[in-house]
Structure formats: C-alpha cells, structure tokens
Amino acid sequence: MDWAEKIENPDFNVIDKDVRITFGTSDPIEFFLTNHQMNFDNQEAKFEAEPTREPALLSGKPSDGAFGLIVNGPRLNIPRQDGLTFKNENLNVTLHAFDHTHALYQGRARLHIAQAITHHFSASTADGKPMDGSTMFDHVGRLVAFLGFVKGTRIGFGQVQGNPEINADSYRLLGFTKHDRFDSPVNWFYRSLTAALPALFEGYVRRIATTEGKRTLGRAMQYYKAGNYTKTDATEIALLMSAAGLETMAYHVLCTEGGWSKALFKNATLADKLRACTRLMKITGDPTEKSDALKKIVKAKSSEKYDGFTLLADFRNGLTHAGDFSYTGEELGHAWFATQWLLEVMILTFLGYTGKYQDRRKQLGGWAGAQDDLPIEKNNE
Predict the structure, then answer these.
(1) DSSP 3-state of 155
(2) What is d(CA 332, CA 316) in angstroms, rounded to the nearest whole number?
C-alpha cells in the first residue's frame, strides 16, 4: 500500500508507526512501513507499507464459486476455450493460461524474472451450494500443491475472490502463497502429457483422503520440490532432500502397505528399504542404469550385492556424515538425477499412474521432450 498525508511535526521516527487496516467485516490486517519520503516544505510525507502476513484472508459470506490467479505455474497445453478442469471432491477447478504465458516460457532463457502471473482459474461447487472461504482455499491449495509436483517446484496462488455476481460481500484472499522462482527444472513431466493430469489428480485426491497418505505425499512432494529448487545452488543439499523424500515414501509403503514393523524399518539400511519398496511397488530397473559414470562405480565394487540402490545410499550417508567419502562433480550430479528420478517414479506409482513420463536421467540437465513408459511391471491379462 502507498499513500500520502500531512505531518505537522516531521519526525523520522514516524517509520515506526503502527498500521492496521480493516477491509469490510474482516479482522484488521497489520502492515509494516518499508519506505517513506518527507517534504519539509509542505510537510507532506509519502509512505509505503507491506502486510506482515501474506496472503491475507478476508472473511466474507460463502459463495458457490471463486476466481483467482496462479504465479509461476507449469507449462501446459491447455485448451484455449475450455481450459483444463480438475475435480476435487465437491469442487471443480478450471485452469486457463493467459495469452502472454506461452511467450514467457519461450523467452525464459532471456528473462531474468523471479515471478510471473501465468494462469487464472475459476472454481465452482459441483452441487451448486455455497462454500466458505477457508474450505475453498484449502481445496484450491491441494490442486496448486499437485501442480507444483507437475512443474517440480512450488507455485503460488492468490488474489482469490468469491463470485461477486452472487454476493458482493464474499470472501477474498489478498496476495499470494509461497512460490519458487519462475524457471522450470527438467523433471518427469512434459507439456504433451497435459491431458493425463486430471486423472492423475484424482489419484492424488484419493491418496490424501487418509491422514497417513496426506502426510506422506505432503512431505515427499515438499522434499521433491526442494530438491529441484536447491540443485541450482547446492547439489549436495538437493540430493539429501531427494533421499529424505525416498525414505518418507518407503516408510509409508513398507510399514502401511507392506507389513513391515517400525522396528524392522528402523534397523534396515536405506539401500534395503529402497530395494524392498521398489519391489513392492513393482518398479523395475536400477536407478543408476542410465549413467556410465555411476555404473563404473558399481562395477568397481566387484560385488553382486552392491547395486545402484547401495550407491545412492552411500551418497546420502557420505554427504550426511563426516568421513572419507569422495566423488567427482559428474558423479554427484548423476547420483542426484538418479535419486530424484526414483522419487518421481515412486510418487507417480503411488498415485496409480501407468502412463507415459519423461525419464530425467536421459536428460541430465539437457534436452527434454521424449516420453517413455513408466518402469513398472504390467499385469498379465
């Protein structure tokens, strides 16, 4: 917010003034002053202030629909007229891309931007009954968290308002939720897979319907996004985030669905956990099979028991605990790609996905676009 006002006794301590603003019937929103300029001739001061919390929820009457914006959304092939609709319990959310969004993605190599409004959405209740603001924001937030997995980093949403045509006094959400920078990492998704997302989202909603499923997916996806985001700055930290996501998934799959006791899980090595989890989920292949650099390390061990899972565990343990663990930059980068790949495949399989995907290990930071079948055993019919 910015405004100007007369100051009878100019005082530089005015920057400490409390600012609380009430919108309609909502509780006052607190702001803090970030800048002010004084004109001592006419005793006028100009002020700028930011809210102490963002986004700010303004209470209001329930509505059967809402409109809002998305920041740094994924690159999708969305039908221009109809949009892309996701069903979330009693709420349907239709996503649209702005006309400028494609140009933003095309020019991302030349644009040094931290954030951009890329999509807008409309939400409506399936039964036509009004929904309160908190529930609406929670349901839209689920979709945005899912779209963050699609892109590979956190995306934000905000500037939401209940349908003003139904009720001018409906709820609002000012500002945006947390989000990462605009640039997209290479991951499992490519825009040609857009049509598969609504069905995949149904699997996501089904999994988060249970407390354990919600906790597992929430944590695993946060580790996954953090791993992608921190790769640019610190590959070691990125690999540790990926490994934490793998252990989160393995714990739920093995202890909730695989019959493992907590004591057994605690005493097993990370390599054994990952090996058993992939076997139970019917994921095939060795995570290091696409990297000559990593296969060379495995082969040098001259042990049938030493495989790609053991190598990834060695990287996690070597980076976590002080010791003589050594590696080249190429080996570290390939190990992170393999670890993040396995986490992607685990999450997709957990959501019941059986379609095409992009094998990030083939890209190793380069060209993207080719799709493969998800590496899972197919049931014989």
Answers:
(1) coil
(2) 10
